[in-house]
């Protein structure tokens, strides 16, 4: 999917009523990492800490604060990300949250604008971003 489309969908989510009703702490940035699992092998993911994905994977990091979104590559120094969102291009859909509460995985999912918009607006994703 085009990066611009992903950014537009996330921006729409940030402008949504739900997001505006859940203010983020001014002293804390919420980061969401989207990783294309088509390019992610199991041994590239550090499951013990759950917050680091190796630099050879295709990845997009969204730094979310208020109504702003910043697009940046993930680097080893970015291993303090709080949320990880996995997706790939397979035709079937299956969403799970791993044992590590910092990770949400969308496996065997065909990513398209409509599906991603539904994921971003799903109660599961919202509870994941805002667990309170």
From TrEMBL:
Sorted keywords for this record are: DNA-binding, Restriction system
Matching entries from SUPFAM superfamilies are given as:
DNA methylase specificity domain
* DNA-binding found in the keyword field: yes
Entry protein name: Type I restriction modification DNA specificity domain-containing protein
List this protein's GO terms for biological process: DNA restriction-modification system
Q: What Gene Ontology molecular function terms does this protein carry?
A: DNA binding
Please tell me whether the keyword DNA-binding is annotated for this protein: yes
């Amino acid at each position: 999917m085009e990066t611009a489309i992903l950014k537009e969908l996330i921006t729409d989510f940030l402008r949504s009523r739900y997001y505006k009703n859940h203010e983020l702490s001014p002293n804390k940035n919420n980061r969401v990492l989207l990783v294309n699992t088509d390019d992610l092998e199991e041994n590239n993911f550090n499951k013990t800490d759950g917050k680091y994905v190796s630099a050879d994977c295709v990845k997009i990091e969204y730094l979310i604060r208020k109504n702003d979104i910043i697009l940046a590559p993930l680097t080893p120094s970015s291993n303090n990300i709080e949320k990880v969102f996995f997706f790939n291009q397979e035709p079937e859909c299956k969403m799970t949250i791993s044992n590590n509460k910092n990770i949400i995985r969308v496996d065997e999912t065909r990513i398209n604008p409509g599906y991603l918009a539904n994921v971003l607006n799903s109660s599961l994703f919202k509870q994941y971003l805002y667990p309170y």
